[in-house]
Write a structure and sequence with these properties.
about 400 residues; alpha/beta; seven-stranded mixed beta sheet; four-stranded mixed beta sheet
């Protein structure tokens, strides 16, 4: 990769992303507009972050009103906005306790600490290991890249943090075989995002719950990407009718404002007493005002039903597209509005090229492992946006096929 042009202002930003040169200036609803005035249909939503699209009036009003009163106080004081949002999370989920932080990686780090502390408090400090799944992505910190055990993200950052064992995603026999005397918990994404939009079978999730109950382990769920209404339920695991012991949330819960959370049962959270864990910025009044506004929308009567309806319509149209253009798009996978198009690798179709072509035609998407194009639109999309996206996906498929035929 060539070094940034030293004459460019971007030369002073660490070169950690292969950035597109596009610079967005404003957003409204499901659209982004760049500095040249070109409008794009946003079907990646900041990687599932802008759950309610851009400049949602309710979020803007909540942020503005709070910004005029109080931005930040330390967690050494009671924060009423935090207490209110924690209560709403607990009333609509399995949880009894909530810890607010700033990101998904921070939520995962805290949840890993929670699992170790849980067993320590019960006189079993030898129980510290956590079983994770191959293909997982849990963040970019040293602990979370060690948990996921993906060579791509570990390269050059060794040695790994000790305490994690991997099993194939969806293979219950392998998960059970990995349980040992030192095992404290099982950590899994109900839908693997970076790993290629791979949904766990609902039976697998139920069997994980049963195994954790059998062996006295904690079931930890990473719903950083698949939570906050993205599957048509508030939390993805609710489709399986199970309850974890703890859950990590982020991305969509802040609607674009940096925010994360750990949701946990009373028993699981018991060990995180004063002095054992903390955060400087997490749960401040500004973040809580926005998170509360997001919950206002997600819990509106009929909102998630509409997400589910539109998602099913999008799924059907993507299935039809794959059937019509199998040389480009092999299959569809995912759940709700967390969908992936598998590009036909055997035919030489590469997801990065498809993402770039879609962007050129005005549709923003993002790649994932296993040659997948991720579709993560805001939860507020309507039928017309589905039709617009499918038209662009069809145009790109035809363009790729015509280019191959011409060659």
């Amino acid at each position: 990769m060539s070094a940034p042009d030293p004459k460019s202002e971007s030369a002073h930003v660490m070169n950690t992303y292969a950035r597109s040169p596009i610079q967005f200036e404003r957003g409204e609803g499901v659209y982004l507009t760049d500095r040249d005035g070109r409008r794009y249909l946003d079907f990646y939503a900041g990687i599932a972050v802008n759950a309610l699209g851009h400049a949602h009036p309710h979020l803007v009003a909540a942020l503005t009103a709070q910004a005029e009163k109080l931005w930040h106080v330390a967690n050494l004081y009671r924060i009423p906005e935090q207490e209110r949002l924690a209560t709403r999370y607990c009333e609509t989920s399995f949880a009894d306790r909530v810890f607010f932080c700033n990101s998904g990686a921070e939520a995962l780090e805290g949840m890993i600490k929670l699992a170790r502390r849980y067993h320590h408090m019960r006189g079993n400090p030898q129980k510290y290991r956590i079983i994770t799944c191959e293909g997982a992505f849990h963040g970019r910190t040293m602990t979370t890249i060690s948990a996921a055990n993906n060579p791509k993200y570990l390269d050059g950052f060794g040695p790994k943090v000790e305490g994690f064992d991997s099993a194939p995603f969806g293979d219950m026999n392998a998960v059970r075989a990995a349980i040992q005397d030192e095992t404290a918990a099982i950590l899994v994404e109900p839908i693997q995002g970076e790993g290629g939009i791979r949904p766990a079978d609902l039976r697998f999730l139920r069997e994980l719950r049963a195994a954790c109950d059998e062996y006295g382990l904690l079931l930890l769920l990473d719903e950083v990407q698949c939570g906050a209404g993205r599957t048509g339920k508030l939390w993805a695991h609710q489709w399986a009718d199970i309850a974890p012991d703890a859950l990590a949330a982020a991305k969509g819960v802040g609607g674009g404002f940096p925010m994360g959370a750990i949701l946990a049962t009373e028993a699981a959270a018991e060990g995180l007493s004063p002095g054992t864990h903390g955060t400087t910025f997490g749960g401040n009044p500004l973040a809580m005002a926005v998170g509360d506004a997001v919950m206002d929308v997600l819990t509106q009567e009929g909102f998630l039903d509409e997400v589910d309806r539109v998602a099913r319509r999008l799924w059907r149209k993507l299935e039809d597209l794959c059937a019509a253009r199998p040389e480009v798009y092999s299959s569809t996978r995912g759940a709700g509005l967390m969908l992936g198009l598998v590009c036909n690798e055997a035919a030489g179709v590469v997801n990065a090229d498809v993402v770039a072509r879609l962007r050129d035609h005005g549709l923003l998407t993002v790649g994932a492992a296993q040659n997948v194009v991720r579709l993560l639109p805001p939860l507020i999309i309507e039928d017309s946006h589905v039709d617009e996206a499918l038209s662009i996906l069809e145009t790109v498929a035809r363009e790729i096929e015509e280019g191959r035929n011409a060659a």
